[in-house]
Amino acid sequence: MVQETYYIKAQAAGGGGGSVGATLMKTGQTVSYRQGDDGAIEAGRATDFFTLASNNPFGTNSRFSDELGGQTYTNNIVIDWSTYNGTDVLGYSKLYQGATWNDAVDNSLTYSLGSYSSGWRLANAKEMMNIFNYGQYNVMNYSPFNFVSSIFYTSTAVPNQSTRILFARNADGQFQNFSKTNSFAYTPVRNFTVNGTTLT
């Protein structure tokens, strides 16, 4: 087992009926304000917000690494091994910039970082929430991300509203909706195929 069991596959390829899924990650909150709250229970997968229960393909239990398995982030790519399903893993750009929503979507689709010149897209609401560390104020301002902008666009629209989009508030990890014409920060993401210790 390369990592925690994220997907329970059907007995045969193409077979149905198998249970598929994974326990959600811990939120990062460790301070408890009463019995039964998140800080007391710390429900979720992994040892803690930054530490996997077993090793990633590079042989460490670090949740976050660069695309080479280290901590240098030379290409400003952060791989989140909590999303690894045995084949693919989600990677985030450490770089962010501001734009209107339409420009953020377009810029993400044509994004290039290191040798990865295709496959990028604007992060959706769940992909942003997955890196919220609720153990601190400014939920995305921690290493390796260090996001200091206060508001981040997602690619997720407000239900039944064509002109409004969900954005993530860095301060407290809430989602709110705003017009697509405002200029906010955004970060592209990309799925990487994992073959041993090679990511493509």
Description of the molecule:
With 200 residues, the chain is mainly beta. It has a domain at 78-199: Mannose-Binding Protein A, Chain A, CATH 3.10.100. The protein has three helices and eleven strands; from the N terminus they run H-E-E-E-E-H-E-H-E-E-E-E-E-E. It has helices spanning 38-41, 101-109, 125-129, and strands at residues 64-65, 77-80, 88-93, 97-99, 121-122, 151-157, 164-169, 175-179, 184-186, 188-195, 198-199. Strands 1, 2, 3, 5, 10 and 11 form a six-stranded antiparallel sheet that branches. A three-stranded antiparallel sheet has the order 6-7-8. Strands 4-9 form a two-stranded antiparallel ribbon. Strand 10 (188-195) and strand 11 form a beta hairpin. It starts with 37 loop residues before the first helix and ends with a strand. The relative contact order is 0.16. The model is unreliable at 1-18 (pLDDT under 50).
